[in-house]
Amino acid sequence: MTDTTAGVNITIEKVNHHFTLEGEDLPVLENINLQVQAGEFVALLGPSGCGKSTLLRLLAGLEPPASGVLAEEGKAITAPDPSRVVVFQDPTLYPWRTVYDNVGLGLQIRGESRPVREQRINAMLDRVGLKQFARAWPHQLSGGMAQRAALARALVNIPRLLILDEPLGKLDSLTRLRMQQEIVDLWQEQQFTTLMVTHDVEEALVMANRVVVFSPRPAKVVDVIEVNLPWPRRRDDPQLVALRSRILDLLGADRVAA
Questions:
Q1: Residue 32 belongs to a domain
Q2: Beta bridge partners of 16
Q3: Is 12 left (phi over 0), alpha (psi -120 to 50) or beta?
Q4: How far is C-alpha 147 from the geometric centre of its chain's CA atoms?
Q5: Strand partners, 104
Q6: What's the number of domains the chain is made of?
Q7: What span, in angstroms and rounded, lies between the C-alpha atoms of 184 and 206?
Q8: How confident is the model at residue 5 (pLDDT cuts 50, 70, 90)?
Q9: What CA–CA distance (Å, rounded) separates 258 from 255?
């Protein structure tokens, strides 16, 4: 695929959020501050239910924060936008559309011409290894293939911000490893900004420029870890192993093990 795009700068400033349950406020995010540079790959780590996915929803413009500012290139995020694309843990493919038609949905909605759609869809399906399955139906795909189709559907639209919410969590281990590398390759190729929620410390370190570690709910930023290692990264690299131990300590894994 020849099209490339520049990522966007993201600002998260003094963001607080809560849910209202049975008339009471349940705090989810507390004073979140983070600057993400255009083209960065940032992974978000923290205990289950701490508020990571909620922060992604706010960044996608799916709901407003209770207070604070989320901005893209200095402009407040107040609603969804085609420049921001979300990939969830479940592929959410439309069962009545073929793989080809699922991938091309966004292009069709935007009114792209048929030749443009065909070029982009075929190039992206080839990129994720699904060209032979273009006319397959979602129920005919394995879990890994369906998630690759969902990723292709996101990336064919040339996003400026890719939001990944546990996109590999339900894949088998070998498919997950391959998908980690595919996402990194596509990110390096297209230069979009990426924010990814994961519960896998090693996955975060293998893929991201920076890893943001959150506390239990309400989520606060505990630390931001720089990962200054070239790609592809070796999982047994001593620096990566040391960073993994540091993050597990921040997450309290040593106390859990004790």
A1: yes
A2: 67
A3: beta
A4: 13
A5: none
A6: 1
A7: 9
A8: low
A9: 5
Measured distance CA(229)–CA(233) in Å, rounded: 7
Per DSSP bridges, beta strands 193-197 and 41-45 are parallel
193 closest CA partner among 238, 168, 162:
162
Is residue 65 within 8 A of residue 16, CB to CB? The reply is yes
- The structure tokens listed for 34 are 């983070």
Token couple for 101: 């038609």
CATH number at residue 30: 3.40.50.300
Residue type, 19: F
Q: Burial letters for 145-160: b for 16+ Cβ neighbours within 10 Å, e otherwise?
A: bbbbbbbbbbbbbbbb
Residue 38 inside a domain? The answer is: yes
Distance of alpha carbon 213 from alpha carbon 52, whole angstroms: 10
Give the residue, 142 or 4, on which the prediction is more confident.
Answer: 142
Check pLDDT > 70 for residue 87: yes
Quick check: is 217 in a domain?
yes
Structural domain includes residue 58: yes
Per the listing, tokens 């843990």 go with 89
Residue range 223-232: average pLDDT? Answer: 94
Residue 256 is predicted with a pLDDT of 38
Domain holding 215, by residue range, is 10-92+161-257
Mean pLDDT computed over 68-93: 89
